[in-house]
């Protein structure tokens, strides 16, 4: 009971929240009592509190293992704002700063220390930790991004395999492993690799109800992106993901030419430029980051209002994690994606040409097929995502394209048989474009060269247009009736699953792709999102944001480290008249109230006058 009271006091007085969310309270008490834990919690669900509060409750310093330099910097900045003695040690520190941090650690003057896995398992650092444990104690080891231990995961880090040494060398120090994305096999591997067999598992819902998922066909992707940004996110921060470095740079430049504040980010950029762009994204308002998947893991920016994909991700895990970077403050956000059959072919070719073991390739193909099935599904997007992670959802979420505008289906059995027959009769070696030309009866040079105008399937598909045939072929690929032949440069071939349909033993219903129209206002907005949008031009809202940005620049931290948008929104609506009332706003603890309360009360008073 005493530990519960202490945890609640820390939550309220230091972090500024009145209640724990979901399983946070159970996790905090379990770890604070010395228990090991495996925590699965969606991005933005409050994982960091699950180890930060126990680290402050227990004697000694809490050691947090993280592979992400950006995350360390953000977390330490945020904790220092709260009055917590926090620091990090990684390769970004110069020699003098690193030495000073070590000295602070050796004096027992740190509550929480973030460290990279490579540094942690180094013999000299382990010796330092031994000394720290004997003199002051180690409160806990928190292993963040724990999915990195899995060789089948989407972000494998071999250094994580060595973290089993913590269990061996410090058996009495509790360990908490945390991740936002791990299916059942990955969870099993985390437990096995980190020696967490006796750890209690806390698995939260994977649902992100504030995210609106939308998937649409590519039809001039740049113009589609431009329409999406202009209609729904004219002043918002967001991320646009592209598959290649070249496409990242071209898209960022094009957006900039269109008047958008866009920056590129990929692993091939100069490290200084990459760091500068990342800092601008974190610390300025309304920046659009155009990036490969090299960007984002551990980026703790709560007011990312959209994540857009111009290319298909590699897996459902990757898609879930990338879209989960939107709306971490709980306000509505968009996950928007365009895709086409060319994306599928490109992804399969990349996978086929890689040096990974065949077993890994087979698993990655299955993951890509699952993502394709999600794209082509006519069911609730939230339901499809949760089903993939082994969780049930009732559907009818009201927060995805399929629920807001249910798609039409049609009996595509005859068209599918035509397409499959065309694939077979042309030799199972040609891509979608050539197959559609055969079905439409086009006399192209390639058709003449291969004598395909003499095929029985030549011209039998004139009842459908080119876009409709492209949809049929794409859905047949998604359904597993056709596969891309990598040896045949992306040509389509039949699978065993196509036999019943060709024999007349089965039928297939296909999705009717809607015409290319803009989403209606009713489709775009939920009440929370509308409330947020309505304040964008409010003079008081702009003044609150301006004061936050001014304070952030003075301290060289991102604005959200001062206050989240959701906290500013509550200040706007509640309009507290004194510090006591200000202290009741969610997200304002004692340290932030003392540091910033008067500044924001001044803004309120000026506008009241």
TrEMBL record:
The reply to whether Nucleotide-binding figures as a keyword in the UniProt entry is yes
Q: Kindly state which keywords UniProt assigns to this record, in alphabetical order.
A: ATP-binding, DNA damage, DNA recombination, DNA repair, DNA-binding, Helicase, Hydrolase, Isomerase, Metal-binding, Nucleotide-binding, Zinc
- For this protein, what reaction is catalysed? Couples ATP hydrolysis with the unwinding of duplex DNA by translocating in the 3'-5' direction
According to the UniProt entry, what is the EC number of this protein? 5.6.2.4
- Asked whether the keyword Heme is assigned, the reply is no
Q: Per its UniProt record, what PROSITE patterns does this chain match?
A: HELICASE_ATP_BIND_1, HELICASE_CTER, HRDC
Essential cofactor(s): Zn(2+); Mg(2+)
Question: Which family does the record assign?
Answer: Belongs to the helicase family. RecQ subfamily.
Write one Gene Ontology MF term: hydrolase activity
Q: Which GO terms describe its cellular component?
A: bacterial nucleoid; cytoplasm; replisome
Domain HRDC as annotated: residue spans: 534-609
Gene Ontology process terms (BP) = DNA recombination; DNA repair; DNA replication; SOS response
Q: Where is the Helicase C-terminal domain?
A: 221-369
Question: What is the official name of this protein in its record?
Answer: DNA helicase RecQ
- Annotated Helicase ATP-binding domain ranges read 28-200
């Amino acid at each position: 009971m005493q530990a519960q009271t202490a945890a609640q006091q820390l939550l309220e007085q230091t972090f500024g929240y009145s209640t724990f969310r979901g399983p946070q309270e159970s996790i905090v008490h379990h770890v604070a009592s010395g228990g090991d834990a495996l925590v699965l919690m969606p991005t933005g669900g409050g994982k960091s509190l699950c180890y930060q509060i126990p680290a402050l409750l227990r004697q000694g310093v809490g050691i947090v293992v993280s592979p992400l330099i950006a995350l360390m910097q953000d977390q330490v900045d945020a904790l220092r704002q709260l009055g917590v003695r926090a620091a990090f040690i990684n390769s970004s520190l110069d020699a003098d700063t690193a030495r000073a941090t070590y000295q602070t650690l050796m004096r027992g003057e740190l509550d929480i220390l973030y460290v990279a896995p490579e540094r942690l398992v180094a013999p000299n650092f382990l010796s330092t930790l031994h000394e720290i444990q004997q003199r002051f104690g180690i409160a806990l080891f928190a292993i963040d991004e724990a999915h990195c231990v899995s060789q089948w995961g989407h972000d494998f880090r071999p250094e994580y395999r060595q973290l089993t040494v913590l269990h061996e060398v410090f058996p009495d120090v509790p360990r908490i492993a945390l991740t936002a994305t791990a299916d059942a096999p990955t969870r099993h591997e985390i437990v096995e690799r980190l020696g967490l067999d006796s750890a209690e598992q806390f698995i939260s819902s994977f649902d992100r109800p504030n995210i609106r998922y939308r998937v649409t066909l590519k039809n001039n992707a740049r113009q589609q992106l431009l329409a999406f940004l202009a209609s729904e996110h004219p002043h918002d921060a967001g991320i646009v993901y592209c598959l290649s470095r070249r496409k990242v740079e071209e898209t960022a430049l094009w957006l900039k030419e269109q008047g958008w504040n866009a920056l590129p980010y990929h692993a091939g950029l100069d490290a200084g430029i990459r760091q500068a762009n990342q800092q601008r994204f974190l610390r300025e308002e309304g920046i659009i980051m155009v990036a490969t998947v090299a960007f984002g893991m551990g980026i703790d920016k709560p007011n990312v209002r959209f994540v857009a994909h111009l290319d298909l991700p590699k897996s459902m895990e990757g898609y879930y994690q990338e879209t989960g970077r939107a709306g971490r403050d709980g306000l509505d956000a968009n996950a928007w994606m365009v895709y086409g059959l060319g994306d599928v072919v490109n992804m399969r070719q990349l996978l086929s040409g890689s040096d990974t073991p065949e077993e890994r390739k087979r698993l990655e193909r299955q993951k890509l097929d699952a993502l394709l099935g999600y794209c082509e599904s006519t069911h609730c997007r939230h339901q499809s995502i949760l089903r993939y992670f082994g969780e049930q959802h009732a559907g009818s979420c009201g927060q995805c394209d399929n629920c807001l505008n249910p798609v039409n289906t049609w009996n595509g059995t005859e068209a599918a048989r035509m397409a499959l027959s065309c694939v077979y009769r042309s030799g199972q070696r040609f891509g979608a474009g050539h197959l559609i030309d055969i079905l439409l009866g086009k006399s192209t040079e390639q058709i003449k060269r291969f004598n395909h105008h003499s095929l029985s399937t030549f011209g039998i598909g004139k009842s459908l247009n080119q876009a409709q045939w492209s949809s049929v072929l794409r859905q047949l690929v998604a359904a597993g009736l056709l596969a891309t032949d990598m040896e045949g440069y992306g040509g389509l071939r039949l699978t065993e699953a196509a036999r019943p349909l060709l024999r007349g033993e089965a039928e297939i219903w296909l999705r009717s792709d809607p015409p290319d129209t803009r989403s209606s206002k009713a489709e775009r907005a939920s009440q929370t999102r509308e409330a947020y949008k309505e304040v964008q031009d409010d003079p008081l809202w702009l003044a609150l944001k301006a004061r936050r940005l001014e304070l952030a620049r003075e301290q060289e931290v991102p604005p959200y480290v001062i206050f989240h948008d959701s906290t500013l929104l509550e200040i706007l609506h509640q309009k507290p008249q004194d510090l006591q009332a200000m202290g009741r706003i969610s997200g304002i603890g004692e340290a932030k109230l003392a540091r910033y309360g008067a500044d924001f009360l001044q803004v309120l008073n000026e506008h009241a006058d």
